[in-house]
Design goal:
Layout (H helix, E strand, L loop, with lengths): L2 H12 L4 H4 L1
Amino acid sequence: MTRLSVQGFIGALSAPEPVFHRV
C-alpha cells in the first residue's frame, strides 16, 4: 500500500460518508 492509499483509507473511515462507498 502506498501512503496515499493508507491516508485515503483512514480518511474514508474517519469521514461520516466514505467517498469510496458513495462512488
